């Protein structure tokens, strides 16, 4: 099991799954928010550091919104360092624990993390967690099935050259954003043009609901898309998030 903290005080990304839907996150703006989050991770690490048969790693914060700029990224980078001490050294002394730290890529290219926490400087047990969804922009939901597969394979090439051990902690075989509430309550979908600012690509009807209604052609694509993301050099976890 990997414990992944999805909600921090003030919200780290403004997403509804952080516990507070906001136009701009506030976690990084308050030292009290960050201190409270560090305290949570210390508690988790001390609780599970001796239970590695259950918990292999701790992700101290899910998807901090680095796309908002340098203020978020600076706070996130320092928080990863703080979390390293809390997770890898949970006993309050120089004894190292066995639970590893999973740091989110903060929506940055993997190359952004070049020379961050390198093993040559003594950092051990650090894994970079990247999430791949090819559905959260008008351009992505307009891709053909072949283009979706090609994009996933290109992502695999990036992972191979990543500066840290890297896993894809969240991904999907969906090629649309049609799942109910995926974009937040009442926001609709880009694919069918009901999301604000989007244009119509197609109807969501045949791509959602019970799999019993999916065509053989669609099922064949889902298998192909799955295989593109889990085989060969594409270092994906075998547990997708379905959209």
Largest sheet: 5 strands, parallel
User: Gap between N and C termini, in Å?
Assistant: 22 Å
Class by alpha and beta content: alpha/beta
Kindly state the mean pLDDT as a whole number? 92
Strand content: 5-15%
Q: Helix proportion of residues, in percent?
A: 25-40%
Spatial strand arrangement across the major sheet: 1-2-3-4-5
Q: How many helical elements?
A: 5
Rough outline: globular
Unreliable runs: 233-243
C-alpha-based Rg, rounded: 19 Å
Order of helices and strands: EHEHEEHHEH
Give the tally of β-strands.
5
Report on the architecture of this protein:
The chain has 243 residues and is of the alpha/beta class. The protein is built from 5 helices and 5 strands, in the order βαβαββααβα. A 5-stranded parallel β-sheet has the order 1-2-3-4-5. Helix 2 (70-88) links the parallel strand 2 (57-59) and strand 3. Helix 1 (31-48) runs parallel beside helix 2 (70-88) and helix 4 runs parallel beside helix 5 (216-230). The longest helix is centred in the N-terminal third of the chain and has 19 residues, at 70-88. Residues 233-243 have low confidence and may be disordered.
């Amino acid at each position: 099991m990997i414990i992944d903290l999805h909600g921090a005080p003030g919200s780290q990304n403004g997403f509804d799954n952080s516990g507070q839907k906001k136009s701009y996150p506030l976690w990084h703006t308050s030292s009290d928010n960050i201190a409270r989050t560090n305290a949570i991770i210390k508690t988790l690490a001390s609780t599970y550091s001796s239970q590695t048969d259950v918990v292999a790693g701790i992700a101290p914060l899910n998807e901090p919104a680095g796309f908002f700029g340098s203020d978020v990224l600076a706070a996130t980078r320092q928080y990863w360092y703080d979390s390293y001490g809390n997770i890898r050294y949970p006993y309050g002394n120089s004894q190292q624990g066995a639970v590893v730290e999973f740091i989110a890529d903060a929506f940055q290219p993997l190359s952004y993390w070049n020379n961050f926490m390198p093993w040559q400087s003594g950092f051990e047990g650090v894994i970079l967690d990247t999430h791949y969804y090819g559905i959260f922009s008008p351009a992505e939901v307009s891709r053909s099935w072949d283009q979706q597969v090609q994009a996933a394979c290109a992502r695999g090439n990036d992972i191979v050259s990543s500066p840290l051990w890297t896993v894809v902690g969240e991904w999907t075989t969906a090629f649309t954003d049609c799942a109910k509430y995926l974009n937040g309550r009442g926001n609709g979908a880009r694919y069918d043009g009901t999301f604000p600012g989007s244009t119509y690509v197609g109807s969501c009807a045949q791509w959602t609901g019970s799999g019993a209604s999916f065509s053989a052609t669609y099922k064949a694509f889902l298998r192909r898309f799955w295989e593109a993301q889990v085989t060969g050099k594409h270092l994906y976890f075998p547990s997708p998030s379905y959209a």
